[in-house]
Design a protein that fits this description.
This protein has 167 residues and is mainly alpha-helical. 58% of the residues lie in helices and 0% in strands.
Length: 167
Amino acid sequence: MLPDLSGSHMLIVLVAALVFIGPKDLPKFLHKIGKFVGKMRSMANEFRASFDEMARQSELDELRKEVEAMRQASHAALPQDLGIEAQMKSDAEAAYMANWEASHAPSTDAATAVENSILPPADAPAAPPPAKAARPKAPSKKPAKPQTPAEPAPKPRARKTKPEADA
């Protein structure tokens, strides 16, 4: 890190920078220094984030190994051939097939009867498509004049004249 600088040390550095760099170029120089420090901070933060990510990944790998070891230990402790798994699998398959057959079986409810009455039979010839209606005329670009009775012309206004001055 930076050494501890007191107020008098900072004042000496600022006066030296003002003398050597000059008052005209000092703001530009400080701006460049600020950009450089910002880039260094962003690079340090990126490095720290990647290091933290690697640490988390190694911890996750260790946890996965522990969980896998626990699974293998639990499988070794249980008897392998109880036949329960096969029975559960066959029961689940039977329930699935029963639901599938029930949902795909032909129905005789009222909705099917209405559907059959609306749709023509499959062997009936298809009706020709309806003829296209005549196209309406395109609207004219001029606005239509309103259908109102003729209005009287406006009355002309009387002109105002300046008062005559006595000569």
